[in-house]
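Pair request: fold both.
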Amino acid sequence: MWVFYNGKILDLENVTISPFDRAFQFGDGVYEVIRYYPEKFFEYDSHLDRLKSSLKKLEISFTAFVNIESILYELIRKNNLDDQLSIAYIQISRGVQFPRRHYFDDGMEPTVFMYVEKFPARQEEMKSGVKAGLEEDIRWMRCDIKTTSLLPNVLSKQRAVKNGVTEIIWHRNGFITEGTQTNVCFIKNNELITPPLSNFILPGITRGIVLRLCKKLGITTTERDIKLSELNGFDEILLLSTTAEVIPVIEADGKIINNRIPGPVCRLLQGEYQKLYNAESR
């Protein structure tokens, strides 16, 4: 497997990471995941803008953005994924610091790691829907930063796996926030409702696409706080992410949604989303 590490494309076996890298010791870094639909990275510029925003918020000094896209295409080529549905992973940490200190030095050289892998579409989940659980959102106050510090996400996702559900939808102080790997939106009387962006919500790329699609299709959208107690009253619940695209929830916390049948708004958005990436990939 060919990867990019600190200026070079290398065989993964030849990559050596310092134990004093702050990503290893503190989770002090950011990341992005970009979908590759042959033969193009989908919404690349939006992902790059979010990566820049995350780096700025964490005060990580990195400027070599112009090289990233060409590196990713070279990785696709070297790993023979030109015609395969794939994802690219980009991680930039603050870098190596010794001795270990909580504060960081100015002018540190960031550690940059990128790889690509084959990642098929989640067709069955998109077609049939999934089950979701509910948990209290106990993350820190800056969930708008796509940081590698993901331990709450990891533990919630592990409980989801053990409990036979696909995703955990979080709530904080009685209001829905998002999922462990997804943004969440709700349909009521053909209106799409989603929590507003805040420091508790990651500005999802797919979330933004879906809002744009709704405007194009004439579907009313509302961004507002959603009470946990409202969950039983929605016609549809949708999970949105780069790797999930648009997935319907047919059961939430044991409560059946729309007779376990993915709803019409979900189907419409799935179709329009597919048209969008097919058009961009030509």
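--- second member of the pair ---
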Amino acid sequence: MKKIFKIFFLIFFVFFILWIDLPENLKDKYNIPKSINLFGFKKEIKINFGLDLKGGSHLVFDVDARNIKKEDLKDAVESARDIIEKRVNFFGVTEPVVQTLKTGENYRISVDLPGIENVDEAIKLIGRTAQLVFMEEKIIENKNASPSSTFVATDLTGKDVKKASVVFSQEDGKPQVSLVFNDSGSKKFQEITKRNVKKPLAIVIDNQLITAPIVQQEIIGGNAVITGNFSIDEAKKLAISINSGALPVSIKLIEQKNIGPSLGQEEIRKSIYAGGIGLLVVLLFMISYYGKLGFIASIALIIYGAISLAIFKIIPIVLTLPGVAGFILSIGMAVDSNILIFERIKEEIRKGKSFDIAFNLGFGRAIDAIKDANITTLTVAFILFNPANWEFLPQFGIVRGFALTLAIGVATSLFTGIIITKRLIQIFYIKNKL
């Protein structure tokens, strides 16, 4: 029963990996599902290419910290980074990379926008402050002149907005921005409308008057509508800006690089070509030098490549050109464990031991060296990835992409080199006496 379960699990695992690794065009051609949909959980399985492979724009913003206290600067920059990421996601960019960079006492925010077409609109949206303020009318009494009026800010701001969305007027069909306030904002809005019945209530965004409707009655429930001569795109951008909040610091675009998708496709083609050649050379070397054992190791190497690709799709990994380089490098490193094991086996055979005994001794004595070598590589990959964003280590996405794919490749090679290769030799070499 246990053996049948193992065989069933192995068959399921193989078909699952093959389904994940199958190219998207073949899935489309034969109507094969491209996503996991299980118990309400849905996840699309695909390779996400980074900026250098998919095309798009790389933007760098300089942070103006003159009006921020030194002790609050780091938190303000991180908050700005989070807000920018929200705006980019609302804008419809998939897999954006937004990160903070520090040089000395200067902060910068880099933004990678893969696949984006309208870069100028994205830049405007990213840098927008979007400070929403509700203002009420105040009458100023003059002794020698007629009373005048002005608008003064209330304590109701964009921070009190729970959600902003685009709606359409039932009267003329024009786009509007609907506001839903949180609990605190609802109470403030009710009080403001109560004391301003038959008076104008101005809605100001970025010091610009958008509209000043007359309050007809006290509004209960925490809902409001911003009207104006908006196009659909303008209403959408306004809603996005309000949803993501105001930037706590001022930013200025200082660098912009645009990459065309054709260049990215060419790099993908070259990377696949280079990876195929590298894999073929490794396979030929293993088979020519170790014979039947090398052939088994080559099968394990192909399985390694399939599992690694499946991991890239499932997580998913944003695959950049340095990331592809890390994966190609890990292909060569994946055979290290096999070479160590096979050389240990040959040493034991030269001492006069049978293959069965030499096989067990070779695996047992090579494991320590394999673990040490791979742990060292994983440590270097961890340092390059810099998950804690330490200032004295690399903070660039291209370095992190290389480190991440290298780490996944090394970890997968440990599994295939020690577990899969051993099982394949036991099944096809020892039992069948090939």
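Observation on the second member. The first helix runs from residue 2 to 21.
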